[in-house]
């Protein structure tokens, strides 16, 4: 039951307002309306009793529900009609979290969706069914029946674990029996034996059978008389005891769960059952460092008291104006319209103009406007998760007049706070008649230095407490709105760029391409696909349509477009290039590569960073070798050259958002002849449009490079995701526009798109499965042979010569204190064991710490893997292994390591039976994240996870089977056919236990059944 917020004492005259506040805080799901009876029940059963307690009045409440409603109507807080209560929007309901809306599910809650469209999903088994006959066969099959059996056992769990008729089952060693579970801690590699004691304290009973409900070679259940073997039954009299021995070989980290069923018979021939779940928790040497610090308790949403509208401002950060770049265009605010806000709060996104309509030329601007409104709507909700209550600040020792605030998670952009941003503060105690707006002047790790109004700074006392509200910069959103605004987006000109037509080009003669093969990077000359892409970009073959470079992992897409830029600069003095990427790190990489080995002088390139980017964040190599290419002065402050100075540069490199700075000067529209967008698959389409709609001339060339099979844009709103915003421009063109699809001959039109095929990263075994699953088996192994084979003899490989390990661990999901993040101690210990083995290798290649990368496949922003990363990092620091990178999949996109270790973290949730599978795999069922995770390794890939859990996901299951087929699996017992043998064994045991026959109709079966904040601008 949800814990209600305590009510403070209140005056009778303020009662109506107090009740209304109670409703808004405790029933946020009533964001716009509710039933009258619901509100009446809330008043009588929740509010009034709490109020009586607070007021100390033991009798009746101070007013009735009718009086309360009268007051609320008079104050225009709500209106009533036909038993419904509607709340006025102006009453202060907060923006409603789109994730909290009820999910509409079609059909029954049964195992297989009852629709006539195929493919259909069997939710119990995680199987895709492609026809009605296949569905019927599946329902009758052993696997499906086994899963229904598990549901039956789960449903009757509470009954099964109870002691009955004077019979109890306890641990002989005195271990606690908690909720039917007995846990034995054991060290890896040991053999553990525990004894269960059956006690009879009442009427005589007969022990018919003792049997484990799973088959596990590591566990053996036995007894002196042979009851567990089905040889005899034993009669117990009052006061009798009998021992059952459970032996376990602790071969692997994790939890070895053995549910054991006991069947008894009374003198009346009535049978009954008792069950115990014996869990052997296999621990390692680092167990104490990883243990839960405190039990998990759900943290209720922080609710701050209202901030005053009387705002006192600090001093805004003054950016350097050296070589000022004048903004001539006024950028509108593009606030969310009240009607859109109301519809999103009312769970009616389908009524938002064009939001759910297919994208067309005619609705292009309006649809993207609505998508951006939906995204911002959710951002407003998400940013409140970082609000702080009752925190202290300190006077800055380095920056006179500023106050320092420590913000946990800031170093990981959770939240993102940059120079020039602001936040609001109010005193936690005493008068709240003022709100203080603090402006960010400096950011260092997790500390921000803020400028507040003089009245606060001069009266500041150490240990004063404040409530803090964070905001996010709307500048990137405003630029995206500007880019899609029909007043700025000339669709007549842009139509051929955004909706290109199939022009039916003839394939280019390969000899013609090779004849132009004079490259600055000679290593590219032997790669036909790279040469082909460069040729067509230089020739402008696709114009006016964009040219796409489809670059799977390790195929060199960035070096390809960089060579094309060099060729353009070399061939014509009238060519001027704008190169953009979604992130600063990607833009820095472009700048470095362009300046290497080629015709582009330092004086001809500008790497233009945003005002908010600090000097410390710039790539060290750029600062050391190419300082004159950066827009920082000698004091490390940002400055923007004049438009005339910028126009002298042959190549300008920025993020897509910072390119908006050039757009708003209104003097570059016809300047750049070529616009290159690298990592184009990471950007939402309106973000890519900032440089395209604002700076691409009518006869200009647009080039985009990326991989639609890897991670796309990071979004927060489920509404914007499901309606098309997570589809980048690159992916949309490749999936919806005929011009960019494969032709009847199976090839792409090389005048418009080149797919790079030569992988220079991975061992053939590592590349094979993602190549088959995502790239039509077209990728070619071209990685350096010595490098890729350097770990084929690693001692821990189950199959020498095959440098992949899938290590199965049945761990335990844990959380601690108020953190919603999961961690898995067993997996963390196994990660450390492999890391230690690799660093202590003797013979062969010496492994450096920087050769190893450790991935957990969730976004930190979703707050699911933070603790796993922190737990592993704690162990790394203890061993002085801090050079080993540990992070999420997003942090590893575009990177590579000699060795990658993946910890999937989530495992079977703690349940009575190991048989029960938790299907909450939504965070794993992401093909793009899976693809990125398994394609980072060069010479060795180690995956650690629960095979029973992962096998329910199509992609992980395919990879798991691949490892099994190549003898690369180790760890807990697992085979894909486990279900079939389990079904036979379990059915036999149920019969022997006299548990009713488990047969289900479909109807009966149905009855059983918080992203990183962007820091790049």
Automatic annotation (TrEMBL):
InterPro entries: AAA+_ATPase (IPR003593), DNA2/NAM7-like_C (IPR041679), DNA2/NAM7_AAA_11 (IPR041677), MOV-10-like_beta-barrel (IPR049080), MOV-10/SDE3_DEXXQ/H-box (IPR026122), Mov-10_helical (IPR049079), MOV-10_Ig-like (IPR049077), P-loop_NTPase (IPR027417)
Protein name listed in UniProt: RNA helicase
UniProt catalytic activity: ATP + H2O = ADP + phosphate + H(+)
GO biological process, one term: regulatory ncRNA-mediated gene silencing
GO cellular component: cytoplasmic ribonucleoprotein granule
EC number, as in UniProt: 3.6.4.13
Highest taxon of the lineage: Eukaryota
Organism: Holothuria leucospilota
Compartment list: Cytoplasm, Cytoplasmic ribonucleoprotein granule
Protein family (similarity comment): Belongs to the DNA2/NAM7 helicase family. SDE3 subfamily.
Keywords assigned by UniProt, alphabetized: ATP-binding, Cytoplasm, Helicase, Hydrolase, Nucleotide-binding, RNA-binding, RNA-mediated gene silencing
Alphabetical list of PANTHER family matching this protein: CANCER/TESTIS ANTIGEN 55 (PTHR45418), CANCER_TESTIS ANTIGEN 55 (PTHR45418:SF1)
């Amino acid at each position: 039951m949800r814990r209600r917020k305590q009510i403070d004492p209140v005056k009778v005259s303020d009662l109506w307002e107090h009740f209304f506040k109670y409703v808004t805080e405790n029933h946020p799901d009533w964001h716009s309306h509710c039933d009258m009876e619901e509100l009446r029940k809330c008043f009588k059963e929740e509010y009034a009793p709490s109020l009586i307690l607070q007021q100390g009045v033991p009798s009746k409440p101070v007013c009735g529900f009718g009086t309360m409603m009268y007051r609320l109507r008079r104050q225009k807080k709500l209106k009533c009609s036909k038993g419904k209560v509607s709340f006025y929007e102006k009453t202060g309901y907060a923006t409603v979290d789109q994730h909290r809306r009820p999910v509409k599910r079609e059909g029954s809650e049964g195992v297989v969706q009852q629709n006539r469209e195929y493919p259909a999903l069997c939710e119990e088994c995680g199987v895709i069914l492609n026809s009605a006959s296949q569905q019927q066969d599946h329902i009758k099959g052993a696997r499906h029946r086994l899963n229904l059996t598990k549901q039956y056992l789960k449903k009757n769990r509470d009954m099964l674990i109870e002691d009955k008729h004077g019979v109890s089952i306890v641990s002989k060693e005195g271990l606690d029996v908690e909720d039917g579970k007995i846990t034995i801690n054991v060290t890896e590699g040991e053999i553990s034996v525990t004894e269960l004691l059956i006690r009879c304290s009442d009427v005589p009973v007969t022990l018919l059978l003792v049997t484990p409900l799973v088959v596990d070679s590591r566990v053996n259940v036995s007894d002196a008389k042979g009851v567990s073997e089905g040889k005899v039954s034993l009669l117990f009299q009052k006061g009798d005891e009998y021992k059952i021995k459970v032996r376990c070989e602790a071969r692997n980290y994790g939890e070895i769960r053995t549910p054991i069923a006991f069947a008894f018979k009374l003198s009346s021939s009535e049978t009954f059952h008792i069950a115990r779940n014996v869990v052997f928790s296999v621990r390692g040497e680092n167990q104490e460092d990883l243990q839960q610090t405190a039990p998990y308790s759900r943290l209720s949403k922080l609710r701050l008291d209202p901030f005053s509208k009387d705002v006192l401002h600090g001093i805004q950060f003054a950016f350097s104006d050296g070589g000022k770049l004048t903004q001539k265009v006024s950028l509108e605010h593009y606030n969310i319209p009240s009607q859109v806000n109301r519809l999103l709060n009312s769970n009616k996104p389908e009524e938002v103009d064009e939001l759910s309509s297919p994208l067309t030329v005619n609705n292009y601007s309006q649809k993207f406007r609505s998508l951006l409104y939906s995204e911002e709507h959710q951002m407003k909700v998400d940013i409140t998760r970082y609000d702080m209550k009752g925190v202290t600040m300190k006077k800055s020792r380095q920056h006179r007049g500023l106050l320092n605030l420590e913000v946990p998670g800031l170093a990981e952009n959770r939240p993102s706070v940059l120079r020039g941003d602001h936040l609001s503060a109010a005193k936690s105690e005493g008068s709240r008649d003022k709100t203080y707006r603090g402006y960010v002047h400096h950011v260092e790790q997790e500390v921000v230095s803020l400028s507040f109004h003089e009245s606060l700074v001069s009266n500041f006392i150490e240990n004063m407490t404040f409530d803090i509200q964070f905001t996010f910069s709307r500048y990137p959103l405003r630029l995206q709105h500007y880019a899609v605004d029909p007043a700025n987006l000339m669709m007549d000109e842009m139509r051929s760029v955004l909706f290109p037509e199939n022009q039916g080009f003839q394939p280019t003669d390969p000899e013609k391409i090779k004849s132009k093969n004079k490259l600055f990077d000679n290593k590219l000359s032997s790669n036909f696909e790279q040469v082909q892409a460069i040729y067509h970009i230089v020739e402008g073959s696709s114009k006016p349509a964009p040219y796409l470079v489809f670059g799977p992992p390790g195929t060199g897409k960035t070096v390809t477009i960089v060579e094309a830029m060099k060729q353009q600069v070399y061939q014509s003095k009238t060519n001027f290039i704008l190169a953009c990427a979604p992130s600063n790190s990607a833009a820095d990489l472009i700048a470095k590569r362009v300046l290497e080995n080629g015709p582009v002088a330092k004086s001809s390139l500008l790497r233009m960073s945003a005002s908010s980017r600090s000097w410390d964040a710039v790539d060290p190599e750029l600062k050391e070798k190419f300082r004159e290419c950066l827009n920082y002065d000698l004091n490390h402050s940002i400055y923007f050259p004049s438009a005339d100075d910028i126009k002298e540069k042959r190549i300008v490199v920025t993020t897509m958002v910072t390119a908006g700075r050039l757009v708003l000067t209104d003097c570059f529209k016809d300047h750049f002849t070529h616009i290159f967008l690298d990592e184009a698959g990471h950007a939402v389409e309106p973000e890519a449009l900032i440089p395209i709609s604002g700076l691409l001339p009518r006869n200009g060339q647009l080039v985009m490079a990326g991989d639609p099979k890897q991670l796309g844009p990071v979004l927060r709103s489920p509404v914007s995701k499901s309606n098309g915003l997570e589809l980048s421009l690159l992916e949309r063109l490749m999936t919806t526009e005929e011009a960019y699809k494969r032709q009847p001959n199976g090839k792409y039109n090389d005048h418009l798109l080149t797919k790079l095929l030569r992988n220079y990263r991975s061992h053939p075994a590592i590349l094979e499965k993602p190549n088959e699953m995502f790239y039509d088996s077209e990728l070619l192994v071209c990685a350096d042979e010595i490098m890729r084979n350097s770990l084929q003899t690693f001692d821990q490989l189950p199959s020498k010569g095959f440098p992949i390990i899938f290590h199965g661990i049945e761990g335990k999901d844990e959380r601690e204190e108020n953190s919603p993040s999961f961690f898995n101690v067993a997996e963390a210990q196994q990660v450390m064991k492999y890391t230690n083995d690799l660093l202590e290798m003797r013979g062969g290649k010496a492994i450096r710490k920087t050769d190893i990368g450790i991935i957990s496949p969730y976004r930190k922003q979703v707050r699911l893997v933070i603790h796993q990363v922190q737990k592993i990092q704690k162990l790394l620091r203890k061993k002085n292994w801090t050079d080993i990178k540990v992070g999420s999949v997003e942090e590893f996109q575009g990177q590579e390591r000699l060795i990658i270790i993946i910890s999937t973290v989530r495992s079977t949730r703690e349940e009575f039976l190991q048989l029960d599978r938790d299907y909450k795999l939504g965070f794993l069922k992401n093909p793009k994240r899976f693809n990125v995770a398994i394609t980072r390794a060069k010479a060795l890939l180690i995956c650690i996870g629960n095979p029973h859990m992962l096998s329910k996901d199509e992609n992980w299951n395919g990879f798991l089977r691949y490892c099994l087929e190549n003898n690369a699996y180790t760890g807990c017992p697992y085979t894909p056919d486990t279900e079939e043998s389990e079904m036979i064994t379990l059915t036999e045991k149920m019969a022997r236990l006299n548990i009713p026959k488990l047969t289900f109709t479909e109807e009966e079966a149905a009855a059983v059944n918080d992203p990183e904040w962007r820091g790049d601008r």
